[in-house]
Amino acid sequence: MALEKQYLKAFVRGFFVTVSVTVTFLDQVACVARVEGASMQPSLNPQWSLSCDIVLLNHWKIRNYEVHRGDIVSLV
């Protein structure tokens, strides 16, 4: 019984650490987004199909004002 309690405690601790790190990463560093529709053609979704493109949105570049001509910027 004590061993099961110890495993459960370790699992819960690991779960909360993982969730905290993941939320911090997605909020501060980068996040993943789907691009659907024809609004970004031909750069993204070059052909009309049922699939969509997946992009990584870099939060650090915008915080440091490192936006250059040709970059794609996502606004919320």
From TrEMBL:
GO biological process: protein processing involved in protein targeting to mitochondrion; signal peptide processing
Topology class, membrane: Single-pass membrane protein
SUPFAM superfamilies linked to this entry: LexA/Signal peptidase (SSF51306)
Major localization class: membrane
Keywords: Hydrolase, Membrane, Protease, Transmembrane, Transmembrane helix
InterPro entries tied to this protein: IMP2, LexA/Signal_pep-like_sf, Peptidase_S26
Signal peptide (UniProt feature, chain positions): none
GO molecular function: serine-type endopeptidase activity
Keyword Protease: yes
GO cellular component: mitochondrial inner membrane peptidase complex
Location within or outside the cell: Membrane
Record protein name field: Mitochondrial inner membrane protease subunit 2
Organism: Monodelphis domestica
Organism ancestry: Eukaryota, Metazoa, Chordata, Craniata, Vertebrata
